[in-house]
Design goal:
Layout: H1 19-22, H2 34-46, E1 61-62, H3 64-71, H4 75-78, E2 89-91, E3 94-98, H5 99-108, H6 118-133, H7 140-145
Antiparallel strand pairs: 1-3, 2-3
Helix pairs in contact: 2-6
């Protein structure tokens, strides 16, 4: 994982980066599950003063292994079939595919394709909730009643 911080006085520089790009962090983490990877990154980000993860999203570009995490290991076998989408690009021996194209192909082949990986959905909602609760005056009783663990 890596990140880039902007200068302390960005208005002093002629090139102003897109503010939305400054709010995103791209990372590549190896972990047993997608949820474990997101949790590890969220924890590591909190070690950087002033930063915290407040949500998760996934890009369209995937490897076959990442696509298989989203829809099941049988994807490796399906990828050998005629008509399976071709890789969009490759880098260092790794081929990258469009998730949308894979999902469309799988749907046409009669497979059920999840809209969003469950782990990603759980991680995104948990991070958004943690962000909303940060500094909020919510009683421990209310949190318990909502089914949330209390420290």
């Amino acid at each position: 994982m890596s990140y880039t911080m902007g200068p302390e006085n960005p208005e002093d520089y002629p090139h102003r980066p897109d503010p939305d790009r400054l709010r995103e962090l791209s990372c590549d983490i190896e972990a047993p599950t997608l949820l474990d990877a997101v949790a590890q990154v969220a924890r590591d980000i909190r070690l950087i003063p002033g930063l915290r993860a407040v949500g998760v999203r996934h890009d369209d570009t995937v490897t076959l292994a990442e696509a298989a995490q989203r829809c099941g290991p049988e994807l490796f076998e399906l990828a050998r079939r005629h008509g399976f989408p071709e890789p969009e690009t490759s880098s260092g021996g790794t081929e990258f595919y469009s998730w949308r194209e894979i999902a469309t192909w799988l749907t046409r082949a009669g497979r059920v394709v999840p809209e969003e990986p469950r782990d990603l959905l759980i991680a995104d909602r948990a991070l958004r909730l943690a962000d909303v609760l940060e500094g909020a005056d919510v009683s421990p009783g209310a949190l318990r009643a909502l089914g949330l663990p209390i420290d």
